[in-house]
Amino acid sequence: KTLEVLYKRASLSATTPRLQDVVDGKATPSSNAQMRLREAVGSGVGDVTLHEKERTELLAQYNKEKESATSEEKITRAHLLLIKGNAGTGRTTLVEQALRKVLHDDGGVWIQIAFDTFPDSDPFYAITEGLWGWVHHLEETGKEASNSIRNMIDREMRTDLNELFRLIPPIKHLFDQDKDKSLDRPGSNFTVGSDSSINAAIIHRYSYLFKSLLVALCSSTTTPVVLFLDDLDFSNSVSLDLLSSIVQQAAVPAPFVVVATYELEEHIEKFKFQWSADDLKFSRIELVELDEATTNRLAKQLIWDSTATDQWKVVSDEPYFEATAGNLFFTDRLCRVWSESGLGCAAVSEENKPESTLLNHADYTPFKLGLLPLEAQEMLRSASCIGSRLDREILGRLVLDGSQVEEYLAAAVENGLVKGGLNDIYYFSHTCIYKAIYETIGDDRFASYHRRIGRQLWRSFDMIELEEFVFLVAELLVKGRDAAEGQKEKYAIAKLCMHAGEKAASSCNFRYAHFFLLNGISLLPNSRWQEEQELCLRLYSGTAEVAYAMGSLADVKDLVNEVMQNVRSNEELRRVQLTKLYTLGTSGQANEALSYGCALLAGVGIHLPPNPTSTGVFFSLRKTSKRLKGKSDEMLLRLPTMNNPEKIVAMQIMSNLFIYASLVKRDLTPFIAESMITLTLEHGLCNMSSLGFVLFGQIICSRGFDLDMGYRYGLLALAIQKRFPVNAILGRVNMLFYSCIYGLKHSLKDACPHLDRNRRLSLQVGDTELASLGSNSFYLCQLDTQPIPILAKMVQRMQDTMRLHGQELNLLMAQPSLVIWLNLSSRTDGVFQHLRKVVFSREKFESMEDECVAIFLWYHYATMAILYVLGEPEKGYDEHAKGCEPLLSNHSAFGDFSVVVFFYGMTCAEVARKRPKQKRNLMRKASRCHDQLGQWSAHSPSNFLGKTLLLEAELLSLRGQHNEAHQKYACAISMSKDSGFYLTSALAHERMGRWKMRQNQAGEGLKLLGKALQIFDEFGADAKVSLLSEEIDRLTKDTTTSFGTFSMSLGC
Q1: Calpha distance 771→755 (Å, rounded)
Q2: What is the tens place of the pLDDT at every residue in 1016-1046?
Q3: Which of 57, 345, 435, 1012, CA to CA, is 20 to 30 A from 779?
Q4: What secondary structure does DSSP assign to 85-104, as a single string?
Q5: Of the spans 8-17, 544-553, 566-575, 965-974, which averages the highest pLDDT?
């Protein structure tokens, strides 16, 4: 859909009542009875009140969010309120009547997104329509409200305004003409291709802008926001993923309520799961059909209101409940029929009284449908096969005479079956009507009916039109598959399903792609591989990739095996071989994935060492540096594009191997970086080349070879990405750069937004391993800047998210961090209770030395660090220091990569104080750690200088240079505090306090220990707080006793 068409569609909404008129009671309803029925939901018609309890609960949740926004508590995310009910129970009416006027009175933002079942090629059709409707109503609510919204958008999205205007052009109207020049800001790269194709890049950009817009609208505590998702179970998986990701948004100050109505629970399971873990931000309301007494009273009242009171004075007692089944929608519609026909009116004279019985809900739609011409009836039946939205252009292809479509639609509108008429787009007037018309087709005609419509549309479309409506045609033919005549037709449908599935997958609509591809496979006979090998290969390979993206790893294994049993050519096997590699890694089999990937590389002429050594690593890095010597960034960016398919496959394999190597064979990563850079220099640039450069930059930074050069190659990798469109490799490059290199020049806290956005992007493109690493990096960058309870909730939420994608790597990567948090905190409630159940035992960690050496090493670091903090440094050194020593020279860390060096140095310094015989050796080790920290802190003081100064102060105190030590302790405290580090700041106060105690300055020492106690408490380290509190009490008593003894001696 072009933006011009969207604008026309929105601008023609003159038939929609103005919001101001609705809330002021000036809107003229099409039917007085219908308006009275809407008022009945929560208020009443006569003495009949509907859903009063539910309306009260809905308002209570809204008011609760408003109150929390004005309190000191910061809202972390939206409150989700799910309203479940069958079609016709009044779900939409309940929300609109309960909240819309209240929200308008509060000056809030109301965005309503209504989903339908039409298989549109634009996955964001409903969201865009909802945003256009919101802007249209906003323009009519008054200048003051528009100005307020404009200021919020301008303040929060200043750099993205151009792109937002392309997404929702009417928002331009909120900005007056004097600011036209400000709309031409550079930097916008949101573009839709000339063929209006939807690809991953557009999906990601749309998602980013939509969430940014919500954050902007939620930036004021005085402006409540309600996002109403109507018929959410009709949404496609791409829209559902976008809306689900709102739960991951940063804290917003405004009261933000998301209300969603639905009927089918299984269709929104993933969306619901994001909120369900937090009872404070999740609630449910379930609507049911009316009971018999309420139905009968409501029906009589509606008949009375629909009838001229001077004609009939009495409404007869009839079995209204039996006729309506308590359905609110049919009660309204049938009461109008009964009133108009005289049924249900006791005052009608006997000669005029209709003899027919009450028309019931099952007969209502067929009755109304029967009033239309036969071809109009068939047109609506055909339209119901397509979806709840009616496109006039498509309808014209389904009738014999396209010129009659307008007349048929007018008749359908007149009879209440269809509504709308804006820009050739119509809708069935209600979901109940849509379903009832669909059911008139009958089971015996179901397959043949869909097949006929699908074939009719297929023949009528040219190639360009078919590309736009391929989802529609393929879905119709899949439903009509049982009526297909012969295997030749089934093959044709399978090929169309393959095309539809590949198109859906390219736009990240994996659920839809899985539907088409699986149905394509099911149409193939037993002789499929002999008759249509290329079709089978594409269907099975594509389905395996989509199943992998959805986390269905068991299905991937079966699909890959099917291909490998029937295809022998390496070139044809490469696609499923890559999928098998991804699956092995995702399922936690890192060793198997690494071995399999190395075997694949050997098949294309690249041999990685099976047992890399430190000497080999040194020469590999030296060889790579020599290859790059003398080549400027401009020279490297001018390299030609790689076009050798075999080498591109090799780059794809290595782009995944580095993740598994970092877990189980860390010394292999330099060889992977060397091979990727060598291929790039010899065969040209591709999108994976950036990964080779950023990996090389990360390695030389972590080993301290040349930090400036490492940072340069990280920036070069980002520059290479600009030459290629957004793809899955971008996520890997960003993750390595922002978690391993960025901290050398910038604050680690500044990397968090990049890492969080990168994690969500990785999930959208199906890169679940990277999303797991991104999750780990995201909270590791905040390891010392957020309290432990917040970090624990963060890990739990991310673990839940990754489990939805069949990914357990996130929990594995989090284990060392869990060891630290769960030992520093003694809490066993809430999220801590769950985390204590999933944290590994010591035996489990020790058994991972061969299975996952990285986790084994990081476990030893975590245990050494926690023993140091809890006052047992000698035990930490004896049992764990040696286990984590390999991390000192090649830590491959994500996040705050200085922590290993820092705690190893601090442990050595403290043990040296207690073991005079080993003092020289231990101080030498601590000094090396200090030198490495000093190298990093020279590039990024905010991240590393506090740790460097504290370790230096410990070394100076050991050497007896107490004046210098005092200065360094004070600087360490100041620097750690300014950088926002909890643990480092607490340790700095504690270590200086203990130093003061050793210098017989007990008063100052106790004061510093008390400050350390306060910071540990703020950090959530209550186990440490308990130990330190007891020690302070003991030291205070000892000091008081000593002072008393000294005073008595003076008196004597």
Answers
A1: 10
A2: 999 999 999 999 999 999 888 876 665 454 3
A3: 1012
A4: --TTSSHHHHHIIIIIHHHH
A5: 965-974
